[in-house]
Amino acid sequence: MLVRRVARPLLASWYLAAGVDAARRPAPHVEAARPLADKVASDAGLRRTLTERELKIAVRVHGVATAVAAANLALGRAPRTSGLALAALTAPLVVVHQPFDGRRVDPEKVTPFVQSLGALGAALLAGADTAGSPSFGWRVRQARGSVAAQTTEAVDSVVSSATSTGRRLGRKVSIS
Q1: What are the C-alpha distances in Å from 82 to residues 24, 30, 136?
Q2: Predicted pLDDT of residue 54
Q3: Please, where are the H alpha helices in 25-135?
Q4: Which of 53, 58, 61, 138 could bridge to 134 as Cys pair (CB 3.0-4.6 Å)?
């Protein structure tokens, strides 16, 4: 459908730009990720937090993964998988940008938070979009039903053939 051919690259453009930016200029992303990385380390009971170098590498890897998934979505390569990958990669951004600090709301974080939420929702929609084709689960259920019907039909045919052959031979054939 024409809408999908236009919408997927448009959706992917935000992710691609954000991913490339994180990979090329990790400093502001490291600064935003530092509080979350420290909190996760302390909550997990780790003895040390990530060093600046380690966090910078993590931010760059996240950026590259985001850019690759976005490029695949834009090009229509495994769009559902790409959409779900982008959703998984966006979840940490939602947490990093959340503006709530227990008692107060940080007004500077509200817009990035809402943008991250919107991007997460869009990625989930892209991941769930079957492009008018039935889902894998539906196809499996249909195949099971078809195989069961064909098996029943084949068994009935064999029983009928065996019965008629037995009658022709003058013997009674019993199949149980």
Answers
A1: 22, 24, 16
A2: 93
A3: 27-43, 52-75, 79-97, 107-128
A4: 138
23 within 8 A of 65, measured Cβ to Cβ: no
Distance CA 114, CA 120 (A): 10
CA contacts within 13 A on the Cβ side of 170:
0
pLDDT for 174 beyond 80: no
Tokens for 35?
A: 């509080």
Hunting for tokens 């509080």 — which residue is that? Answer: 35
Nearest to 66 by CA among 103, 29, 37, 101: 29
Quote the DSSP letter at residue 44. Answer: T
Task: Give me 154's structure tokens.
Answer: 């084949």
**Distance between CA atoms of residues 97 and 66, nearest Å:** 17
Tell me the backbone φ, ψ of residue 105, rounded to 5 degrees: -110, 125
Q: By mean pLDDT, which of 80-84, 126-130, 149-153, 170-174 is the weakest? A: 170-174
CA distance 57 to 17: 18
Digit-coded pLDDT (tens) for 36-85: 888 888 888 888 888 999 999 999 999 999 999 999 999 989 888 999 99
Give domain limits for the chain. Answer: 2-128, 135-176
Q: How many other β-carbons are positioned within 10 Å of the β-carbon of residue 68?
A: 16
